[in-house]
Specification:
This protein has helices spanning about 5-15, 55-70, 85-90, 135-145, 150-160, 205-220, 235-240; strands spanning about 25-30, 30-35, 45-50, 75-80, 95, 100-105, 120-125, 165-170, 175-185, 190-200, 225-230, 245-255. By secondary structure, it is an alpha+beta fold. It folds into 2 domains: about 5-100 and about 250-255, no CATH class; about 105-250, Gcn5-related N-acetyltransferase (GNAT) (Aminopeptidase, 3-Layer(aba) Sandwich). Strands 1, 2, 3, 4, 5, 6, 7, 8, 9, 10, 11 and 12 form a 12-stranded mixed β-sheet that branches. The protein is globular, with a radius of gyration of 18 Å.
Amino acid sequence: MDPDALLTDFDVQLRQRARGGAGADTEQIGGVVRLTAGPGRWSGVVWSDLDEGTADRAIAAQVRHYAVREREFEWKLYAHDEPADLGARLRAAGFRPEPRETVMVANVAELATEVVLPEGVRLRPVTDPDAVEPLAEAHAAAFGTGRPELAEELRAQLAGEPETVAMVVATARGRPVSGARVELPPHADFAGLWGGGTAPAWRGCGIYRALVAYRARIAAERGYRYLHVDASEQSRPILRRLGFIPLTTTTPYVHRPPGIANAPAAQLG
């Protein structure tokens, strides 16, 4: 894989040509591509083409756009985005940076797709919009905090565009211990991995690897060339061993208008 060529394709296919999905508006305006969804769903800037003369105006325009709609939103900043001080400009405009993640990519054809689970763990596909609660429970078990709006986000995606996502939950002793999904954007070479966090008592048992293999198999069956993932510090070494390479880094910058309740903008990552 050629990292430079991959990064160009990633930017064009997944950022510049991003789609917001069911119930979300996608706009390319003022040098940015932004997604605007309803209350409780992810909204934000996914791509920008700015310089020192246009960045501050574009930032102010996005703050106004989402403030009028009373939306918290995220500006997804990548390490190669211009201008070089865009992060500092976002902080000056009231954005709060969250932990940086590494964008990692793998060739689907080179990934293992055999699912090997520890004893007592089962995987269950989630295809019914009314059966997404275990995924939300798994997220709470893995990260120690619940997101009340998460089940609604997942439900809306399964109901509105089921062909663009596959979801799975891992259960042990009848309880959800991990949940994950693979995003399957149409007309793109990249499928995206989200989730995979595991409840503390079940970490180190191979569940995360099994969920990657499960989703790699789905991506292969659907004809995708690559898998990408925003990797945390914890998952990056595992993904390296599985064959993923680092492409760039991304830092979510979150802006919350005054008076808006704590409603996390971050996706299930």
